[in-house]
């Protein structure tokens, strides 16, 4: 049913398994290239800013800017993705990103010290918007790329490609950072993005006829309201937002605190930080591989959600205990925790994404994905600012992780009865 009570027919097209597999191969190649270079650039940028500013917020700058841009462009992103051809949106966004990186390359050295935050913030803002457009359009175009049987494989291999690149990107990044400097990382990313653009342009996006004839007559605000009302009919999506907002706030304690404690408080240098980044990527890779071989029935996938959430929250608390040990033990302990944590997070992300893509109508998929991303990420800037302050003023910083995990566990237990009723009835839409 649509938001006005009318019936929305399922829009499907016939894509062969061979065509779907070809699309997956191209997507895998594009993600390998883009994730590898992007991971090195992000890692090098974090190290550069941390060295220049000596502030824990440097490593979490993207977590502040990204959600803010998502909220500011929430309405146009969803509306545009649901109105125009997805391939055109993706290619345009990628070209804007390449142009922005080129300008960033020629201007970054005009600033010194804290002044480098100016070009970095501008770059991250534009990059966030363009990436948000392309990623939302990509998520909404899954039915244009592969048939329904290949959706899980596409999502899993996309995660695997990203993880493989991320495993080696921090290692190579920390090895090259002191040799080639930050500028060359930008140049590498520009060249890699051009290759990704060429691969994406060769992919075939099968056109799906828009069902709603009234869609083009609606104002931007009306389209947004329609998407918001559509989401209200999904129990599953509502719980994703309720849990995701609180989770992302608390999870910033990990993304900001781990590199800050390791490099600034424990003076262990960049090496352990790169090891943690790689360990996290290994966990994501294992999670993607696990989901790629799991049975594809929705009911089977749903069974993973609650245990996975519980495991993630417990690991966040346990991570605080790791920093009570010697430097060598800390590196090993934190590395193992990051593998386990990101393994569970990959399973959770793939499961929820596939369930959404299979149950949301094509006409609404862009607005739904945009709203979920924006609302779930909206608490990350607050979390980044809050935990940046906490890691500065709290003497026993490792306890911050313990408390963050406990908060999530208590919140989870409060929601658990409602979640169990929803999964028991197998009604993710109501």
Descriptive report:
With 430 residues, the protein is mainly alpha-helical. The protein has a single domain, classed as Up-down Bundle (Growth Hormone, Chain: A), CATH 1.20.1250.20. Helix content is 79%, strand content 0%. The chain has 16 helices and no strands. Helix 2 (61-72) packs across helix 14 (362-377) and helix 3 packs across helix 8 (220-232). The radius of gyration is 21 Å and the shape is globular. Residues 1-11 have low confidence and may be disordered. Keywords: Cell membrane, Membrane, Transmembrane, Transmembrane helix. InterPro entries: MFS, MFS_trans_sf. Pfam families: MFS_1. The chain crosses the membrane at residues 28-50, 57-77, 186-206, 239-261, 273-292, 304-324, 330-356, 368-393, 399-420. This is MFS transporter.
Q: Distance between the terminal alpha carbons, to the nearest Å?
A: 11 Å
Radius of gyration: 21 Å
- Tally of domains: 1
Low-confidence residue ranges: 1-11
Protein name: MFS transporter
Pfam families: MFS_1
Subcellular location: Cell membrane
Membrane topology: Multi-pass membrane protein
Features:
430 residues, Growth Hormone, Chain: A, disordered N terminus
What is shown here, in short?
With 430 residues, the chain is mainly α. The protein has 16 helices and no strands.
